[in-house]
Amino acid sequence: MAHLEHLFVRGIRFDTEAQYLAQDAKNAKGLVYENLPVRRSASARTCALTSVIQCLAVLGQLSRPQMREVQRLARKALQGTGDDSVLRCIDAVGLPIVAELHASDSVQVGHLGAAALEALRTGRACLVHFESATASRWATVVGVEWDRTTGKARALLLLDASASEPWACAHNVRIELQAEAGKSVRASPGFTLNCRHLTGEACAARLRSLIVLRRNTSAGV
Fold first, then answer.
1. Does residue 187 register a pLDDT over 80?
2. pTM of the model as a whole
């Protein structure tokens, strides 16, 4: 019997809108909850940009003024949606945050799930690059569903800027890692994972890569 648990990225809450714990601009020693930036768009570049900003906000506990500056720098730096472009964008923002790329192929889905689960357990943040037969985009891995019995990740819980905005829920899309996609999601060769929206849409998908972000402790963060 599976004993499932949802593990979410540290420092968020979602009683209504998704919010993250941020530095209080009016009190240098205080922390307050701010709305996590969510910008719905069909643009792959905008989705990538939104995911980068969300991860940096959560990990860096960015205040509103810091958030505006990070958004400006990230928007200027992001030139494409490939792995290298996203990594350069994260680096260009200038925060003491280190990004690590985990590439994927069809046999490494479990590896990416394990990497995402470990990232959230250790207070890190991550974003995933995935694609269907008709689209390729980035989304924030806001949570992981895992089995306490086996210790394995069963699904990535995503905050996807191309999907409907969530309410009283941290994620709006889930990608199942252990259930093979079938006819109901129009599976095709190479697209073997179920990708389901909380609003009912579904498609077959595959994972391209995962970027894990961590604070650079050598920089005094």
1. no
2. 0.92
Total H helices, total E strands in the chain: 4, 11
Predicted pLDDT at 40: 87
Q: 77 falls in which pLDDT band (50, 70, 90)?
A: very high
Helical (H) or strand (E) element with 84: helix 83-92
Question: With contact defined as beta carbons under 8 Å apart, do 113 and 174 qualify?
Answer: no
pLDDT in tens, 61-71: 999 999 999 99
List of E strands, the chain: 4-8, 12-13, 19-24, 27-35, 97-103, 125-131, 136-147, 153-159, 173-180, 193-197, 202-215
- Tally of structural domains, the chain: 1
Task: Output the domain CATH number for residue 212.
Answer: 3.90.70.10
Nearest alpha carbon to residue 110 among 191, 176, 55: 176
Residue span of the structural domain in which 180 resides? 4-219
What's the pLDDT at 221? 43
Structure tokens at 62: 């960015």
Residue 28 has which token pair? 């240098």
